[in-house]
Design brief:
By secondary structure, this protein is mainly β. The protein contains no helices and 24 strands.
């Protein structure tokens, strides 16, 4: 039996190796920043909210979900895909380009990945609750964003929009909504997964991994499924049998359940994971 929602409180130039790692903060929702001339070397991190950006020893720059107790979900939210290069490091160049270089490398030929934002002098990287944004310096230039992060509902839900899914905002690949106890993550591999925060365990999934990045949509149209995943080619990769309606809301609950409700408070569908948080 479904349960009612419970309120949750809720072109790279040659460089000089010079600066230490990014600014860190112990505040859970503080902004983490990698300033011009700073770098992340193997094992160093930036953290904001439940997101942590890690320069791994294998050379991959990766973002994970991590609880306040340090429990980390093993599946990455985002990465540069530069594994297999031990000792690689990320460098926020003075020209505004964020580059992952091979160990000891400084030349353009040593670059493994970049944001492509050169000619933006003084640019810097900001991490805020899983959203990475590269802001140009004072003279302007090209920016960049990861399109990842926490995706709270808009235009509803009082003081707790982080737990709600509405038709006003889709959840892209690498984004999530949350309660106090679970994350509902639309993974970059196309799988929608409900994770428990206390141990990172997967409680439920759509079973659509390895299908490429998809958008999670709550539909108002009676001709569409109420909840579905749609890939970049506009193909539906997963859906529920309930039809769309203008009065639907999705709620990630503190009991561990994700439920679709109508305006009368009737539960129309759920992941069936109540009591598992």
């Amino acid at each position: 039996m479904f349960r009612r929602a419970t309120a949750a409180l809720l072109g790279a130039a040659a460089i000089a190796l010079m600066a230490p790692a990014a600014n860190a903060s112990t505040e859970p929702d503080a902004v983490a920043q990698l300033n011009s001339g700073e770098r992340l070397t193997a094992g160093q991190t930036m953290k904001s909210g439940d997101s942590v950006l890690v320069m791994q020893g294998d050379g991959n720059l990766v973002m994970y979900l991590e609880s306040s107790t340090g429990v980390r979900v093993k599946t990455a939210l985002w990465s540069t895909g530069t594994y297999g290069n031990p000792g690689a490091y990320a460098y926020m160049q003075p020209d505004g380009n964020l580059v992952v270089y091979k160990q000891g490398g400084t030349a353009q030929s040593d670059a493994l990945w970049s944001t492509g934002t050169w000619n933006s002098p003084g640019g810097y990287l900001v991490l805020y609750r899983g959203a990475m944004t590269l802001w140009p310096g004072p003279s302007g230039g090209k920016g960049w964003e990861s399109r990842t992060g926490l995706a709270p509902a808009v235009g509803c839900c009082g003081t707790n929009p982080e737990s709600y899914l509405t038709s006003a905002r889709n959840v892209e690949g690498g984004q999530w909504i949350q309660s106090n106890t679970v994350w509902l993550v639309n993974q970059a591999d196309g799988n929608l997964v409900l994770y428990r925060k206390r141990d990172g365990a997967a409680l439920w999934s759509s079973g659509t991994w390895n299908r490429g990045s998809s958008m999670l949509v709550l539909s108002e149209s009676q001709w569409n499924p109420a909840l579905f995943l749609r890939d970049n080619a506009q193909r539906v990769t997963w859906s529920i049998s309930v039809k769309g309606s203008s009065d639907l809301r999705g709620v990630v609950q503190d009991d561990g359940n994700f439920v679709i409700y109508n305006s009368a408070g009737a539960a129309l569908w759920s992941t069936g994971t109540w009591g598992k948080a």
